[in-house]
C-alpha cells in the first residue's frame, strides 16, 4: 500500500477555525476542513495545527510540535495578527522582524526534510474607514511572504486580491464580516486558492459566493 501523504496546516484563527485542540483529527469548520473533504479521495491526510491569535513568533515557539506532525506538504498561513496587534494592543511587529522569523521557520522545515511548502498570502479587508491605513502595515508583510516563497522554493497561494474582490462584489459581511475571519463563502475562496496552487488546477469547493 502506498504511503499516505500528510498535509499539515500551521497558522492563526483562520486556520484554527474552532478546532478541538485535544483531538488531532479535528479540523475546525473553515478552509482546512473544505480542503480535507476534497483531497480525501487522493489518500492525503490533513492535520490542522492552527491556533487562534498566533503571530509568527508564536509559530516559532511551537514549531517543533508542528514539524513533529510529519508534514509531506506544509502550509504556513500567518501575518494578519502581526499587523492587528499594532492597532488593538500597541504591540507592533515590523515587516523585517516578521520576515526574519518566518525565514527561520522555513529554513528549519527544509533542514528537517519537508519536501513541499505552501505559503498563503495574508489578507485584510478594511470594514471601517479608519482601517484603510492598516494595509500600510500588512502590505510589506505580504511582500515578505512573496520573497520567502521565492527564496525557499515554496508555492505561493495568492489570496489578498481574491478576497478583496469578492468582498467588493458581494459585500464584506458575506465574505469577511470583520475584515479577517471568513464566512463559509470566504473559507471556500481560501480553500479554492490553496487547491489550485497545490494541484495545479482549478478545483472549486462548495460554499463560495455565487456557487450553488
UniProtKB/TrEMBL annotation:
Range of residues in the leader sequence: none
Name of this chain's protein: SGNH hydrolase-type esterase domain-containing protein
Stretches assigned to the SGNH hydrolase-type esterase domain: 9-188
UniProt cross-references to InterPro entries, sorted A to Z: Ester_Hydrolysis_Enzymes, SGNH_hydro, SGNH_hydro_sf
Lineage: Bacteria, Bacillati, Actinomycetota, Actinomycetes, Micrococcales
Sections of the chain in a coiled coil: none
